[in-house]
Amino acid sequence: MRTFLDENFLLNNPTAEILYHEHAKEMPIIDYHCHLPPDEIASNRGFENLTKIWLDGDHYKWRLLRANGIDEKYITGNAPDFEKFMKWAETVPYTIRNPMYHWTHLELRRYFGIEKLLDGSTAKEIYDRATDLLQTDEYRVQNLIKNKNVEIICTTDDPVDSLNAHREIREQEFPVKVLPAWRPDKLLSAENPDIYNKYLDRLSEASVIDISVYDDLIQALYKRQEFFNSQGCRLSDHGLETFFAEDFTENEIKGSFKKVRSGKQLSESELKKLRSALLIQFAEMDHEFDWTQQFHVSAIRNNNKRMYELLGPDKGYDSISDLPLAQSMSKFFDRLEQKKKLTRTIIYNLNPRDNEMIVSMAGNFNDGVTPGKMQYGSGWWFLDQKDGMTRQMNTLSNLGLLRRFVGMLTDSRSFLSYPRHEYFRRILCNLIGTDVENGEIPNDLELLGKMVEEICYYNAREYFRFG
User: Total domain count for the chain?
Assistant: First the structure.
């Protein structure tokens, strides 16, 4: 019988063990998409206690706490920090077979050396030990990153952001590159003219361009993208429920923008056309700057209106959408391809129904020049668990080139999330090792070891062109 979280955790055959320990384990990490706050890296934040670093902002844990019948005051409310932690500790035994059970104990081991299982009876001891360690310099943010062999981090940043924190990090000569990534989602949210115009005023201020008409908006965006590029940005990111690919004319878009800028509500048709025009504009600019564009699709957000009005967005009330994707995705990419303005692209899906469709669609737009140009992104959000990662890699293997895959990212707001790369690497090595043991691929450890190293690190280093 195997021991929980032993050195060969998730590695179920000798080949998998060799591939992980000799090829995957020590590879540096390129975390090319995450939501870590750059100001906390710049300030080298220290955390008051384990709750502050581990539970605050973690909607994965929040959803499970609610499912376990825990009152909101212990989740996003004003209960004392230890009481919040105790509720999580009491919930952990109920998370068995959920990936949070693995992640919880991996993080306790990898960061704090704590091998005890977390439950109500061990909560106080674990909380006190971890909290004591968090008071030392070794557990400030920059060391938490550096000590996990992280080479590059790409944060998620709005076009109006000053990027001052990124500049501060560079000036400190922190050995890990912390780069911005461009996330212009708010420019697609023109359904509320008042909120939209306030945002446009902020963009106007950041770009020092008076945004009155649509051409002003494009000029302001271009200026901000030039600035992001000068600060090391090489990726954009877009969170979409589906792709926007409506037919439109230039006059229609200029008229709709003028209408919303004057405070008037757009019709549903006008809104879809404006979003389509802007999404094409974003993509063409990414091509011009030689960036990689990322699309996270099929999340339906803020489903619980009462809790949204009480707590706001990103509090654990989002889920998987089932809107159609294929037709609009095809039309969107084809428009760019016809203009020869389709840059390197990664597509992440939230609905596993779409796995094969997305890989087959992406394959239509590879150019025969850039290896792995159209990427099928790693298992994301509800799918970044053992089954989801395995299905993603199997789909890519069946319909594309797994060996060109740029690998895992954390997509996390937590500074304790880097064991997710370990989790992914173990699953990858076990997948390949199992095929070897079954005689489905050759037992060539030199070939397969190189493949593992490429997926874990080298592909991303080459693909993103960080310089």
Answer: 2
Mind giving me the DSSP string for 380-434? Answer: -GGG-SHHHHHHHHHHHHHHS-GGG--------S-TT-THHHHHHHHHHHHHHHH
Which tokens hold the place of 362? 């992406």
Distances in Å between the Cα of 86 and the Cα atoms of 74, 97, 100, 130, 417 are: 9, 21, 16, 14, 21
Q: How many helices (H) and strands (E) does the chain have?
A: 20, 9
Are 186 and 99 contained in the same domain? no
SS3 374: strand
Predicted pLDDT of residue 1: 85
Query: Per-residue pLDDT tens for 262-300?
Result: 999 999 999 999 999 999 999 999 999 999 999 999 999
β-pair type (319-320, 299-300): antiparallel
Domain region containing 287 = 149-464
| CATH code of the domain containing 411 | 3.20.20.140
Last residue of a domain, one of 77, 106, 139: 139
Q: Is 96 exposed, middle or buried (0-12, 13-18, 19+ CB in 10 A)?
A: exposed
Residue 144 lies in a domain: no
**153 plus 127 within the same structural domain:** no
Beta sheet of 150-154, edge-to-edge order: 29-31, 150-154, 177-179
- 209 with 260, same domain: the answer is yes
**Is 425 in contact with 20 (CB distance < 8 Å)?**
yes
The answer to whether 252 touches 273, Cβ cutoff 8 Å, is: yes
Confidence of residue 301 (pLDDT cuts 50, 70, 90): very high
CB under 8 Å to 377, separation ≥6 — which residues?
294, 296, 346, 347, 348, 349
Phi, psi of 117 (to 5 degrees): -75, 140
CA angle 145, 465, 181 (to 5 degrees): 55
Q: Which of 89, 111, 139 is the last residue of a domain?
A: 139
Residues contacting residue 356 through CB under 8 Å, at least 6 positions apart: 395, 398, 399
In tens, the pLDDT along 138-189 reads: 999 999 999 999 999 999 999 999 999 999 999 999 999 999 999 999 999 9
Is 196 in the same domain as 224? yes
Are the CB atoms for 279 and 285 separated by under 8 Å? no
Same domain, 215 and 122: no
Which residues are CB-contacts of 51 (< 8 A; sequence separation ≥ 6)? 81, 82, 84, 85, 127
- Quickly tell me which residue has 């025009």 as its tokens: 277
Q: How far apart are alpha carbons 39 and 415 in whole angstroms?
A: 13
DSSP secondary structure string, 175-231? SSEEE--B--GGGG-TTSHHHHHHHHHHHHHHHT----SHHHHHHHHHHHHHHHHHT
